[in-house]
Specification:
mainly alpha, transmembrane helix
């Protein structure tokens, strides 16, 4: 389907107006379907993987703290120290990837609301305005991956996991 602007320039009168209405209805339906699809996908992912994500968070926090403890106490073998450092980087990267993309989902859901806000509503039909208003209200609460399960997947939660790991490291160090 060609862009509306190119049709408006090359077409004439009623044909352009008719095409504009069809394109407008198509865009409205497409936006609504995508919004519903993303919300359903997010809910399905959260319900399917919530136990795995909780286990991943707990294991990652423990692994990172134990690995940091091993690095701080390793004095003899440089190779062993290198292995612990590589493992630590892998664990932190794995956790960061979960949190980064969860954060991206939240940011993108918030940008949809902003995009709807910036539309010139005076050019839209009443039906489109109603649909956009429903989507606008729905997006007032951003999509957050695993919200309320244990913690949300955001960059802030990544920092919190590192803080918990450091706290566990201090407990291990002080108890030794």
């Amino acid at each position: 389907m060609p862009p509306i602007a190119s049709v408006a320039v090359s077409g004439g009168g009623a044909l352009v107006s008719e095409y504009y209405c069809i394109a407008q209805n198509s865009i409205e339906t497409d936006i609504r379907k995508k919004c519903d699809k993303y919300c359903r996908i997010s809910e399905k992912i959260c319900s399917t993987f919530k136990e795995m994500v909780i286990a991943q968070y707990i294991t990652s926090a423990l692994s990172i703290s134990v690995c940091i403890y091993q690095i701080s106490t390793e004095k003899e073998s440089q190779m062993q120290l290198l292995i612990y450092c590589i493992y630590l980087c892998c664990m932190m990267t794995q956790l960061f990837i979960y949190c980064y993309f969860g954060n991206e989902v939240t940011i993108q859901s918030q940008s949809l609301r902003t995009s709807i806000f910036h539309i010139d509503w005076s050019l839209l039909s009443l039906e489109v305005k109603k649909e956009l208003l429903i989507i606008f209200i729905r997006t007032s609460v951003p999509i957050e991956m695993f919200k309320g399960v244990f913690m949300t997947l955001t960059l802030e939660s990544f920092i919190n996991i590192l803080k918990v790991s450091y706290t566990a490291f201090n407990v291990l160090r002080d108890s030794a």
